[in-house]
């Protein structure tokens, strides 16, 4: 089963996140404000090599860059 | 002496508890489906006996009843309808996830977001559709367009469900 989003390089995880974001934005306003908070992700990470902490990067940015680089490679 | 032995045996027999009924495939009432429908932040159904569940799987719309063959189905963003024992019908729009039928009429549905239809606003859906169409037809990156297409797929399913 070839999915259009997979061919464009989007991972299943990201697909779920996009679909969930859309559903949250479609709610009536009172429920929407509560739900939107669930979609916020501000995760940062740093690679450690040889005991030294590398640069602190945002997970969302790194994922996006990786997906764009891999677009079209799968399927 | 003999009567003492008989008495002792009788006492032992009475004291021995009945063995607990072994749990097998038949412990769920054979004509009911045990449903668990869970989101990461909320449990909608927790091992509740229901009659039938209709799901929108990628392989097609399916109705799951008791004694369904075990299977794993990826869900499309769409409506899940639960027909409860007391005769009520509940519908939820799920953003996507998986439905797993286990042996013994156990159905587990996991989704990221799910709400009953009355929680949605048709106007918000329409606004999002026009925005997503602009991005999908525009000149952004392939990724933005692919994401806009995902959004359109979900929104069209939601719009159809809300009618």
UniProtKB/TrEMBL annotation, chain A:
Instruction: Name its GO BP terms in alphabetical order.
Output: proton motive force-driven mitochondrial ATP synthesis
Q: Which InterPro entries match?
A: ATP_synth_F1_esu_mt (IPR006721), ATP_synth_F1_esu_sf_mt (IPR036742)
CDD domains on file? F1-ATPase_epsilon (cd12153)
Which GO molecular function, any one, fits this protein according to its record?
Answer: proton-transporting ATP synthase activity, rotational mechanism
Any one GO CC term of the record: mitochondrial inner membrane
Bilayer-crossing regions: none
Tell me which family the UniProt entry assigns to this protein.
Belongs to the eukaryotic ATPase epsilon family.
Name assigned to this protein: ATP synthase subunit epsilon, mitochondrial
Lineage here is: Eukaryota, Fungi, Dikarya, Ascomycota, Pezizomycotina
TrEMBL record, chain B:
Can you name one GO molecular function term for this protein? proton-transporting ATP synthase activity, rotational mechanism
The F1F0-ATP synthase subunit delta C-terminal domain is annotated at 120-160
Its GO CC terms are: mitochondrial inner membrane; proton-transporting ATP synthase complex
Q: Can you say what this protein is called? A: ATP synthase subunit delta, mitochondrial
- Compartmental location: Mitochondrion inner membrane
Q: Which UniProt keywords apply?
A: ATP synthesis, CF(1), Hydrogen ion transport, Ion transport, Membrane, Mitochondrion, Mitochondrion inner membrane, Transit peptide, Transport
User: Which InterPro entries did the record assign?
Assistant: ATP_synth_F1_dsu/esu, ATP_synth_F1_dsu/esu_N, ATPD_C_fung, ATPsynth_dsu/esu_N
Can you give the residue ranges of the ATP synthase F1 complex delta/epsilon subunit N-terminal domain? Answer: 33-106
Chief subcellular site?
A: mitochondrion
Q: Does the keyword Transport apply?
A: yes
- Please name the HAMAP family in this protein's record: ATP_synth_epsil_bac
């Amino acid at each position: 089963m070839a999915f259009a989003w997979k061919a464009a390089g989007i991972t299943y995880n990201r697909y779920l996140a996009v679909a969930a974001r859309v559903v949250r934005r479609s709610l009536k306003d009172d429920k929407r404000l509560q739900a939107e908070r669930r979609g916020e992700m501000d995760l940062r990470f740093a690679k450690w090599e040889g005991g030294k902490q590398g640069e602190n990067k945002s997970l969302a940015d790194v994922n996006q860059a990786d997906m764009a680089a891999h677009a079209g490679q799968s399927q | 002496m003999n009567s003492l032995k008989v008495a002792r045996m009788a006492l032992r027999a009475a004291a021995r508890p009945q063995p607990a009924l072994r749990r097998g495939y038949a412990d769920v009432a054979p004509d009911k489906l045990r449903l668990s429908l869970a989101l990461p932040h909320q449990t909608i159904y927790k091992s509740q006996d229901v009659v039938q569940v209709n799901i929108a799987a990628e392989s097609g719309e399916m109705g799951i009843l008791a004694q369904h063959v075990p299977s794993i189905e990826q869900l499309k963003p769409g409506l899940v309808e639960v027909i409860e024992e007391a005769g009520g019908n509940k519908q939820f729009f799920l953003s996507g996830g998986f439905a797993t039928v286990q042996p013994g009429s156990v159905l587990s549905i996991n989704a990221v977001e799910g709400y009953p239809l009355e929680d949605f606003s048709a106007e918000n859906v329409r606004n999002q559709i026009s925005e997503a169409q602009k991005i999908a037809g525009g000149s952004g990156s392939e990724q933005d367009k692919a994401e806009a297409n995902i959004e359109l797929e979900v929104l069209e399913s939601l719009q159809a469900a809300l009618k």
